[in-house]
Amino acid sequence: MRFRFRGTVMAAAAFSAFAVQTHAVNQRDDLSERDRARVEEVTRTADDFSEPEAFERMQGGAATTTKLINADIFSHPSATLEFAEQQRFLLGNGLFRKDWVTAPSSTQASDGLGPLFNARACQSCHIKDGRGHAPNGPEEQATSLLVRLSVPPSEEQEREILEGYLSSVGEPVYGGQLQDFAAAGLPAEGRVRIEYEELPVSLSGGETAHLRKPVLSIDKPGYGPLRPDTMLSARVAPPMIGLGLLEAIDEGDILAREDPNDADGDGISGRARRVRDETGQWKLGRFGWKGNAAGIMQQSADAFSHDMGLSTPLAPDHWGECTGAQAACRAIPHGAQPQFGDQEVPGDLLELVAFYSRNLAVPARRDIDRPEVLAGKKVFYEAGCAGCHTPKFVTRRDAVVPALAFQLIWPYTDLLLHDMGDGLADNRPEGMATGREWRTPPLWGIGLTKTVNSEASYLHDGRARTLLEAILWHGGEAEAAREKVVEMEKAERENLIRFLESL
């Protein structure tokens, strides 16, 4: 059935005025009184687990794809797109899959890669529009995982961070991200090396789960040793589905779930991250593992610049992550061609990639009425998982893409930052996000992760090989939920996983 719903302490102080202002907007200005009542009704927390909720199968509203389940299931357009929009989607798809080359090249519309880079194409990391994976050992190449770098800020840099003009301070020579590939004749910045320590976890019923704790290091640094106080954080590429729908959630609906001081005493203290968008305005950070981008256009431009060294109107430096200390890197020719524009990825191409990214459809759920799935859903709620993984929202009527407007969606995220404990901490602050905080990732489509990419792994650094491992790494605000899972009977845990696999 288809349903289109119609008709830090210093950081906290610095943003308090903004928080008060935005919390006042919890009454949506895009809804009539009648529509507001309808939205409140359909987004009410479930309390009956004997049968599926209405429209639950269509996770992305009317935009949900019902195509055949196979390795391409994350690569279909929103079902609500008009014909002309589908053509734009296909053009964006071509750019997303395009292999860029270093300059100068005979293929002038495709050169400008690097000089330092992590991948030649967006699709190289977001494999079939799904998530990447961590290497399984120290000898394996990190093909869809990157490493962020930063050093402690000076007093002046800390002010810039609080004012939102700086997210973190890059390593003086290597910058904010390690690039493990380089143009011919130029050394790469280094090689990511990940080893694992095994951590056994005892579960009720005599079971033992085996987690793997990553130990991250950089081999063969190409430009000398990194500063001793450099902080490292590994990140796998997240899945691309449903991004436009997340962008279309009303900001007030998200901010209404903030509880930075745990006023309700439930142990969950989510808080929004505020960032400056491409216009310099304060906005809610919705994208990235720590909520570092407000919108899809900004996120796309950052990826072009940092991951592939390609300039765009929003990130116009042709040499990407090459720092001033890497003189040979900045001396290499760039790929901007006067006949195409001032950047290597002109504005119209960036817009096509952003349109594609906004409209990758969420797949329909499977087996939603099976008894074990319904039992697993009940366990999900009873364990407290829905405290952060908010099941549903209704998107704004005036969404950027009209085809995504006023949809009942089921992303299972609150898009807020949460303290996830010591086990998952990267101890690397980013903007107002601490080294223990992560944005709640959406769960829709998570059951098809291995269908799309059999090597895919979970959590921000890909350490978890299974959904159960991912759950058992939860700590901090999620510690109580994790302990309930540990103490469950085996059948209950299996039902919980079966529910997640249906998403």
TrEMBL record:
Residues 371-503 form the Cytochrome c domain. Pfam families: DHOR. PROSITE patterns: CYTC. It comes from the Bacteria. Residues 1-19 form the signal peptide. InterPro entries: Cyt_c-like_dom (IPR009056), Cyt_c-like_dom_sf (IPR036909), Cytochrome_c_Peroxidase/MauG (IPR051395), DHOR (IPR010538). One of its GO terms (molecular function) is electron transfer activity. Keywords: Heme, Iron, Metal-binding, Signal. This is Cytochrome c domain-containing protein. It comes from Chelativorans sp. (strain BNC1).
